[in-house]
């Protein structure tokens, strides 16, 4: 009999927590997780209430997790808790809960392992100078997961369930949210076909998981401009495929080209369309923009390009600042002739491009403090970090 896929036993026991006081910024209400009886399947607001009720004798002077915040890169660091929720095919997700972070158990015949039936999302939580915890447009991540789930024949959490799970995960890992200006807590929701299948078919059971890790800059260059190589032989996506949804199967195919480019000293790879091999699509994990004569252009999403949430936000911010923004077919010749090029994404935020190499020729672009990408980066991150008034209602406060 094939074992049913379940969470690791150590992750399904009642989680116990103990809260501590901050010696540096007591108004932040940070906590450390040890052992006071309390069910973490209750709402995030209940966790906060429990913190507020903790007695002085239960507190110490620890504020944050033991992390060197000045050396954060974009790499995994295990935190305290993850969120999980299960569902059978044809049903709807219901109550989820927080569990201690740890491994999960999957049958070797799980749909996600055999047929790639899985999706992921990525979003960040920032700590404002006033110590508020802020999410950026999480409902858009939820809607994008729903679109991907429909494409892969999977049930998906509702928008409210998704946002609630993200909030709980962030609050339970609050001590891992970097200090203001030092980075962010990267939140990774996963939707997996966990049920067992042998023949090609949708899995009978699904798991929705959310975990988190503190991160700094995505590229090793930090905030310095990056250098891209145009990939001419392999392609990221094809028309009618899944390039427009955030399925896990989209990313492994780019690794070979990415590794080869990095061996040559490039930061990442810029992929072209698979039909004409001349129109820009995406960098390995982010969208691309160019600026020419004051007009900003970005490739039109038409099923092969992921509709990035940062991409959509930058388009709106740029238009608010008076720029004409075009979503269209963008050719290699267009990018060669551009004044400025930059990438956008949750992980990379807004990354200026120093150069693009195509057919052995390297083309350089404007970068620096006066660049449009710098202005857009500052405008976006000021909203994300709570440094300016959010007139668009994009940020969500975790309470």
Automatic annotation (TrEMBL):
Keywords: Amino-acid biosynthesis, Aminotransferase, Branched-chain amino acid biosynthesis, Pyridoxal phosphate, Transferase. InterPro entries: Aminotrans_IV (IPR001544), Aminotrans_IV_CS (IPR018300), Aminotransferase-like (IPR036038), B_amino_transII (IPR005786), BCAT-like_C (IPR043132), BCAT-like_N (IPR043131), BCAT_family (IPR033939). GO terms for cellular component: cytoplasm. Transmembrane segments: none annotated. One of its GO terms (biological process) is amino acid biosynthetic process. PROSITE patterns: AA_TRANSFER_CLASS_4 (PS00770). SUPFAM superfamilies: D-aminoacid aminotransferase-like PLP-dependent enzymes. GO terms for molecular function: L-isoleucine-2-oxoglutarate transaminase activity; L-leucine-2-oxoglutarate transaminase activity; L-valine-2-oxoglutarate transaminase activity. Gene3D superfamilies: 3.30.470.10, D-amino Acid Aminotransferase, subunit A, domain 2 (3.20.10.10). It catalyses: L-leucine + 2-oxoglutarate = 4-methyl-2-oxopentanoate + L-glutamate; L-isoleucine + 2-oxoglutarate = (S)-3-methyl-2-oxopentanoate + L-glutamate; L-valine + 2-oxoglutarate = 3-methyl-2-oxobutanoate + L-glutamate. The modification N6-(pyridoxal phosphate)lysine is found at residue 246. It holds the Pfam family Aminotran_4. Its EC number is 2.6.1.42. Its cofactor is pyridoxal 5'-phosphate. CDD domains: BCAT_beta_family. It comes from the Eukaryota. Belongs to the class-IV pyridoxal-phosphate-dependent aminotransferase family. This is Branched-chain-amino-acid aminotransferase. It comes from Apostasia shenzhenica. The lineage of its organism: Eukaryota, Viridiplantae, Streptophyta, Embryophyta, Tracheophyta.
């Amino acid at each position: 009999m094939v074992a049913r896929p379940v969470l690791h036993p150590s992750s399904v026991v009642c989680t116990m927590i103990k809260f501590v006081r901050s010696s540096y910024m007591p108004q932040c209400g940070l906590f450390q997780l040890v052992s006071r009886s309390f069910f973490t399947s209750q709402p995030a607001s209940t966790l906060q209430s429990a913190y507020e009720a903790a007695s002085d004798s239960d507190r110490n002077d620890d504020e944050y997790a033991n992390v060197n915040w000045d050396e954060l890169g974009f790499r995994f660091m295990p935190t305290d808790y993850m969120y999980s929720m299960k569902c059978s095919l044809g049903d709807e997700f219901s109550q989820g809960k927080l569990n201690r972070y740890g491994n999960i158990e999957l049958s070797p015949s799980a749909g996600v392992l055999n047929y790639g039936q899985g999706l992921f999302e990525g979003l960040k939580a920032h700590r404002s100078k006033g110590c508020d915890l802020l999410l950026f447009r999480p409902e858009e991540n939820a809607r994008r997961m729903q679109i991907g789930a429909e494409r892969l024949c999977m049930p998906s959490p509702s928008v409210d369930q998704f946002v609630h799970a993200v909030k709980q995960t962030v609050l339970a890992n609050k001590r891992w949210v970097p200090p203001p200006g030092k980075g962010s807590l990267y939140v990774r929701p996963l939707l997996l076909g966990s049920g067992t299948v042998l023949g090609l078919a949708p899995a009978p059971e699904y798991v929705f998981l959310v975990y988190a890790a503190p991160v700094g800059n995505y590229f090793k260059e930090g905030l310095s401009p990056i250098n891209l190589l145009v990939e001419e032989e392999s392609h990221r996506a094809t028309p009618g495929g899944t390039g427009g949804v955030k399925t896990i199967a989209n990313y492994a195919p780019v690794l070979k080209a990415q590794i080869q480019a990095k061996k040559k000293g490039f930061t990442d790879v810029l992929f072209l369309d698979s039909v004409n091999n001349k129109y820009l699509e995406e960098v390995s994990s982010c969208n691309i923009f160019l600026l020419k004569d004051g007009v900003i252009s970005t490739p039109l999403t038409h099923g092969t390009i992921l509709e990035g949430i940062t991409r959509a936000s930058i388009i709106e911010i740029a238009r608010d600042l008076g720029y004409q923004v075009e979503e269209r077919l963008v050719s290699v010749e267009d990018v060669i002739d551009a004044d400025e090029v930059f990438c956008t994404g949750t992980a990379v935020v807004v990354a200026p491009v120093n150069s693009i190499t195509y057919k052995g020729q390297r083309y350089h672009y404007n970068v620096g403090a006066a660049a449009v990408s710098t202005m857009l980066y500052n405008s976006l991150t000021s909203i994300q970090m709570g440094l300016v008034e959010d007139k668009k209602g994009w940020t969500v406060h975790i309470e």
